[in-house]
Amino acid sequence: MKMTVNMECTPEEARRFVGLPDVSPLNEMLVAEMTSRAQENLRLMAPEAMMKSWMAFGGQAQDAFLKMMSPSSGGRSE
Asked: What is the pLDDT of residues 20-37, one digit of tens each?
């Protein structure tokens, strides 16, 4: 015998029906943490912050950056 049951419910109702735990607080915490880390990383990559960092080391930082970028661009380092 073959039986088909169609149920209309929200994802929350289906989760409760199957007995799965509610992980939305954990999900919200993880999203907030990832958002704050991404914002901090974007602040570090701001042009002003990068230039301050480079100028603190003088020409060494610029040379290191050029050496790092030249293999990936396919160009030759001079």
From this structure: 999 999 999 999 999 999
